[in-house]
Amino acid sequence: MKAMETEKQYVYTSLKDLKLKYFPEIVEIGLGDQEPKQQIQTLDLLKRCCEKEKSERRTAQIAARVKSAKFRQIQSVEQYDFNHSKMTQRIKNTYLVVHNNIEKDNLPKAIFVGNPGVGKTHLARALGYSSCQKGLSVLFLTAAEMANQLLQAQKLAQLEKEIARLKKPQVLIIDELGYVDFDVQGSQLFFQVISARHDAGLGLVVTTNLNFSQFNQIFANEAVATVVVDRMVNEAEIFYMEGESYRKHQREMKAQKKEKSESASKK
Asked: What's the predicted TM-score (pTM) here?
């Protein structure tokens, strides 16, 4: 009887979690008309229904968050080969600590610095994808897109609305910072977004091909570059990624898999 009461409470709690607040009352009446053996079967069926409904809803919610994040391409940590080089082996443990501990009260804050093709965007996207799975809102965009959207919003007198949009996601991923220069206006607007998110304690993930000392090359002046770096690196985990191209490694891995597949099909 105790086991059945436990099952019943689980079902009732699940129904309430699913916002089916009146279902427990009807179920209780129905169970009252059944023999103990039938009650166990009914509760088991209801339990499986609840678990299926919760699972499907969670899958749909994750899919919606991933779509809203605008990743362009889904890349997970499972797809990344940390054995690629000594550099990736070195950052593996620290990265996984950040990745595996993403929560609402522990939003990811990370900066990936390094040459093109070393896997910075992949690891940044993986943090975003994991955040979506944890129920967090995410937005992925390039630094160039962000600058253009802010300047366009300012021209249309919608700057406040655009800054609010960029502040809304719990995790913002800015890719390719360093490939475009910001004029005075663009530099100030970029800083406003970074500062607003920093003050709100929100998650920020950035990839850049420049060392922080070179930020004065893309922002209007040294002062803005300094405050942007100050807000970005505060509490962030910084990953310096140099070495062999990860894209080249991926191409080689794909070629090897294709070769093995063709070889197996010939046997």
From this structure: 0.86
